[in-house]
Amino acid sequence: MMNKKSKKILYIEDDPDARALMADIIRYQGYTYIEASRGLEGIRLAKLHKPDLILIDLMLPDMQGSEVTTHLKSLPELRDIPIISLTGASTENVREYVLTAGCDGYISKPINVNEFIFKLEEFLAGKREFVPPEYEKEFLQRYNVELVERLKRKVSELESLNKNLSRLNADLIASREELANYNDLLFYLNSLANYLRTLNDPQKLIKILPERIVEGFHLDRCVIFKHDPRHGTMDPVSFFGEFPSSPQGMSLPFSDQLLQLVREEGGLLWIKNYHQMVEESLQSI
Fold first, then answer.
1. What is the pTM of this model?
2. What CA–CA distance (Å, rounded) separates 18 from 28?
3. Mode of pairing for the β-strands spanning 221-228 and 233-241
4. CA 50, 14, 60, 66 torsion: positive or negative?
5. Geometric angle at alpha carbon 196, from 194 and 201, rounded to 5°
6. Residues sharing a CB contact under 8 Å with residue 260, sequence separation 6 or more, in sequence order
7. What are the sequence ranges of the domains in the chain?
8. Contact between 105 and 127 (Cβ < 8 Å)
9. Which helix (H) or strand (E) holds 233?
10. pLDDT tens by residue, 180-208
11. FRET partner for 183 with CA separation of 20 to 30 A, picked from 63, 150, 193, 205?
C-alpha cells in the first residue's frame, strides 16, 4: 500500500487561485505539497526536493511548461520523475505536444476532483502516456521547430535589452561625469566667492573676475560689459580669453530684447553654444 505521507508533489503554476485549490486537494489526500509560481523556481525546487511527481502548467510567465519539462528530463537525477501537464490550453494536439516535450501524462483543466485524484494515483503508481509511434517523429519535429523559434525570439529580446542597458549605462556614466563637474564648479564657485570677499577694490574685482571665470569654468572667453542707458549701448570694461578681434573699444547696441534677456538671467549672461545666440550683436564677440 502507498505511503502517501512520504510522497512529495511539486506543482508549477503561476495562478495563485489554482495553486491554493491544488494545495487543498493534495494535502487532503495526505501528500506533501510543494509549489512554484515560475518555471525557474520550479526547476530549483525540483532539484532541491526531488519530488515523486511534478504537475506543471503549460503557460508560465518566464518559460513555457514544455521547456521546463524538457530541461528537467535532461537532468539524470530528475529524468525518472513523472511530469504531468495540467493545463487548460485548447491548442490542437496539445496532449501530443506536451508528451513529445517529455511529459509523462496530460490532464486537462478544469479538473474533476475525484477523477483527478484517481489519475494522480495512477501516475504515482507508474502509469505513463506516450505519443503513438507513427506520430512521434512528426510531433518531435514540430516541437523542435517551435523551440528554435522561441530561442530566436528570446535572443532578439536579450539583444534589445542589452542595447537598452548599454544606453542606460552610458547615460549613467554621463550623468555621473556631469555631477562630478557640477560638484567641481560648486567648489570653485565657493572658493572664488571667498576670495572675492577679501577684495575691497571693486575695480580690481572687475579686472580679475573674467580670468577667474574662464579658468574655473573652462570657457573660451568672458567679457564684463557696462550698460550705458543714455546711448543704449554696452561697453566692455574687462575681458579675458581668446577673441576673433580685441573687444577693446567695442561698443554694442543694447536692444530691448537683450535687456530683457539679461534681466531674466539675473545680470549674468552665460552663452554655452555660439549658434544659440539670439542677439546678433553678440555674435561678433
1. 0.56
2. 15
3. antiparallel
4. positive
5. 145
6. none
7. 4-131, 136-198, 201-284
8. yes
9. strand 233-241
10. 877 887 787 788 778 777 877 878 888 88
11. 205
